[in-house]
């Protein structure tokens, strides 16, 4: 296997990175149903945090609290505090659009707009007021380079984004997220619809991106969590079917010596 | 139950480790017994059987590699399989100590033993007893046993020191026996090392059970501990 694909945890021994996002006592409701209960979680800057757990345990719901995506679903309510760089993003008067600019998202299925590759990437910056062609050209090129897609598409920027392969489309979506210069990138099973090679490419890309961005990834693929992340959060539902945080630690500990029996059963494939 | 197949395969590997352990136990007892009887043919058989021990070790190593590659073990499973890799290497080296004793018997040729063997068979018996219980502790993940068995290393060390002192008196009395004394000293040294490696197996059992890699303190070389 390509050596570059291996997770480098060496930096963790130098102490923990600063806190980027801080969840305190977070609960989230769909109508009367409590989907998340009392979650505490600290996301560290320029690190990859994986959220794992069985289906239906609230991983994606939790991910969507980081950029208030749950607000888009009717009848939802969020209690508790989510602080991004110390600022509560659920406080009154917070500019949700700005929150979503700073906390970008990549979804399970690649979802490029039915537009050219160029326009896909330029979409966000245009929305935020970038007008000059030369500025947009620069943003598009940089974003595609950061998403490791530039060399493959630089001669066909006018082609539809939908004409790319699945793996390329996902990297285009990552470029689109990067174009608005976020701090945090949320990834909801970004590789589950991709073949193994495209998956490894996305994982390698995450390693490159984490030098500049904080990444939070939801994944069902235990090996992927073990390979790519620095920290792992393990979730499960309680007897009310509400999502809870069971254990959170450095990835190397979660996968070699977890403290909670339920985490042990889950990562060894004996539960879930 | 999820992962029934994987659990069965892990059980098979553990059974193989026990089998390898019993082969090594036989080799240790056999090497001393054939030395005691000056049975050269028996010692040659020990050398041949050491090949079986080596093969068995590689076979288990291969089984473990395949499980790691195909089953992606995590947490306890990962600690267990990684530890088995260490334990089989310890066992194989113990087999080499028995082989070393068999080689000494062969090299002694028709020269008689310097003295009848009394403490040497005691050491071998103690080694095998400790080894056997350390492997039982490994299988049962018996933390208490894994912590206490290494303490018995002191008894093996005491026997070694006794043999050492006794052989020195022979050498001082008659320097011509130095080679024959030296052979027996090497036999005792090999047996002393077996007990040290039992400690290593116990350390792995503690790791499997707790995730903690601990160094159990007993000197690797009894001679230096004396000084």
- Main-sheet strand order of chain A equals 6-7-8-3-9-10
Helical proportion of chain B, percent range? over 70%
Low-confidence stretches of chain B: none
Query: Which H/E pattern describes the elements of chain B?
Result: HHHHHHHH
Tally of alpha and pi helices of chain A:
10
Q: What is the typical, i.e. mean, pLDDT of chain A?
A: 92
CATH class of chain B: Mainly Alpha
Number of structural units classed as domains of chain A = 1
Counting DSSP E segments of at least 2 residues, the number of strands of chain B comes to 0
Mean pLDDT of chain B: 94
How far the N terminus sits from the C terminus of chain B, by CA atoms, comes to: 57 Å
- How would you describe the oligomerization state of the chains in this entry? heterodimer
**Number of beta strands of chain A:** 10
Number of helices of chain B: 8
Give the class-level CATH name of chain A: Alpha Beta
Low-confidence stretches of chain A: 1-14
Q: For the report, how would you describe the main beta sheet of chain B?
A: none
CATH fold annotation of chain A: Rossmann fold
CATH superfamily of chain B: Phosphate transport system protein phou homolog 2, domain 2
Q: How would you characterize the largest beta sheet of chain A? A: 6 strands, mixed
CATH architecture identity of chain A: 3-Layer(aba) Sandwich
Short overview:
The complex is a heterodimer of chains A (272) and B (227). Chain A contains ten helices and ten strands.
Question: What can you see in these coordinates?
Answer:
The complex is a heterodimer of chains A (272) and B (227). Chain A has one domain (3-267): Rossmann fold, CATH 3.40.50. Chain A contains ten helices and ten strands. Helix content of chain A is 33%, strand content 25%. With 272 residues, chain A is an alpha/beta fold. Chain A is globular and about 55 Å long. In chain A, 43% of the residues are buried. Chain B has 227 residues and is mostly helical. Chain B has a single domain, classed as Phosphate transport system protein phou homolog 2, domain 2 (Methane Monooxygenase Hydroxylase, Chain G, domain 1), CATH 1.20.58.220. Chain B has helices at residues 4-36, 40-71, 75-108, 119-140, 143-148, 153-173, 178-210, 222-226. The longest helix of chain B has 34 residues, at 75-108. The relative contact order of chain B is 0.13. The mean pLDDT of chain B is 94. At the A-B interface, helix 8 and helix 10 of A face helix 3 of B.
């Amino acid at each position: 296997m390509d050596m570059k694909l291996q997770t480098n945890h060496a930096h963790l021994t130098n102490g923990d990175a600063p806190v980027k996002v801080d969840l305190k006592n977070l609960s989230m409701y769909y109508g009367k149903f409590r989907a998340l209960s009392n979650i505490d979680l600290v996301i560290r800057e320029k690190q990859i945090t994986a959220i794992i757990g069985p289906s239906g345990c609230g991983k994606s719901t939790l991910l969507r609290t980081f950029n208030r995506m749950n607000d888009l679903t009717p009848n939802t309510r969020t209690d508790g505090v989510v602080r991004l760089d110390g600022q509560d993003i659920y406080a009154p008067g917070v500019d949700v659009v700005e929150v979503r600019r700073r906390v970008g998202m990549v979804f399970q299925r690649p979802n490029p707009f039915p537009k050219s590759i160029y326009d896909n990437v330029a979409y966000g910056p245009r929305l935020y007021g970038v007008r000059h062609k030369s500025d947009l050209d620069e943003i598009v090129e940089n974003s595609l380079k950061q998403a490791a897609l530039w060399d493959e598409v630089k001669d066909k920027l006018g082609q539809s984004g939908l004409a790319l392969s699945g793996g390329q489309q996902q990297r285009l979506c990552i470029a689109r997220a990067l174009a608005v210069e976020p701090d945090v990138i949320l990834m909801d099973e970004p590789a589950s619809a991709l073949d193994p090679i495209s998956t490894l490419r996305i994982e390698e890309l995450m390693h490159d991106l984490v030098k500049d961005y904080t990444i939070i990834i939801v994944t069902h693929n235990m090996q992927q969590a073990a390979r790519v992340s620095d920290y792992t959060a393990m979730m499960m539902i309680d007897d009310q079917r509400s999502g809870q945080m069971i254990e959170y630690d450095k990835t190397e500990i979660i996968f070699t010596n977890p403290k909670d029996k339920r985490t042990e059963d889950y990562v060894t494939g004996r539960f879930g | 139950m999820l992962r029934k197949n994987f659990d069965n395969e892990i059980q098979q590997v553990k059974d193989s480790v026990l089998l390898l352990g019993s082969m090594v136990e036989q080799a240790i007892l056999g090497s001393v017994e054939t030395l005691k009887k000056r049975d050269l043919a028996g010692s040659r058989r020990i050398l041949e059987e050491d090949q079986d021990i080596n093969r068995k070790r590689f076979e288990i190593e291969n089984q473990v590699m395949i499980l790691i590659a195909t089953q992606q073990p995590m947490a306890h499973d990962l600690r267990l399989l990684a530890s088995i890799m260490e334990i089989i290497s310890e066992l194989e080296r113990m087999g080499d100590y028995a082989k070393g004793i068999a080689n000494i018997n062969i090299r002694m040729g028709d020269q008689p033993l310097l003295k009848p063997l009394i403490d040497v068979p005691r050491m071998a018996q103690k080694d095998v007893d400790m080894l056997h219980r350390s492997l039982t502790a490994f299988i049962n993940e018996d933390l208490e046993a894994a912590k206490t068995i290494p303490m018995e290393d002191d008894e093996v060390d005491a026997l070694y020191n006794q043999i050492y002192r006794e052989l020195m008196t022979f050498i001082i009395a008659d320097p011509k026996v130095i080679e024959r004394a030296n052979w027996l000293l090497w036999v005792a040294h090999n047996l002393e090392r077996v007990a040290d490696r039992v400690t290593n197996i116990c350390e792995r059992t503690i790791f499997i059970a707790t995730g903690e890699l601990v160094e159990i303190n007993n000197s690797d070389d009894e001679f230096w501990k004396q000084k």
